[in-house]
From TrEMBL:
InterPro entries: TIR_dom (IPR000157), Toll_tir_struct_dom_sf (IPR035897). GO terms for biological process: signal transduction. Residues 18-154 form the TIR domain. Keywords: Hydrolase, NAD. It holds the Pfam family TIR. This is ADP-ribosyl cyclase/cyclic ADP-ribose hydrolase. Signal peptide: none annotated. It catalyses: NAD(+) + H2O = ADP-D-ribose + nicotinamide + H(+). It is an enzyme of class 3 (hydrolase). SUPFAM superfamilies: Toll/Interleukin receptor TIR domain.
Amino acid sequence: MALVTSKRASSSSFTQFKNFDVFLSFRGEDTRLGFIGHLYNALRQRGINTFIDDNLKKGEEISIGLLKIIESSMISIIVFSENYASSTWCLDELAKIIECKKNDQLVRPVFYNVNPSEVRNQKGKFGEALTKHEEKLNDNKRVQTWRDSLYEAANISGWHYKHE
């Protein structure tokens, strides 16, 4: 099993099976230019092979390859930020991560300028985003999976980051 660090991954790179130490799940518009870049570099500098996909096209469905990368990672770090739940892509990643947690994958949340209770109880922007998804998608089962995943992830001991 080769462990590879990927800074830029195109959909074609998903066709090769790769294992990573860490999978980062994040909402790019909230965290990409600061927090995620620093976290990725800190992990990489310590020799931790980390998957970061910063080349996603807006509106695309999550790929089978990306789901396999989540499955093959030893740890998933979920960076919950203000607009995380507005992305169906992030929520699909989260659902897969929680599924993998049930198979003993280590999962750690980071609450980036959000309170864990907002995530757990789907209040504020999290609640607004899920309500919009319910109205737009007309897929209550999928949205309920996201709600359950948010609740479960917010109950995992994690880190709080408050940018002042």
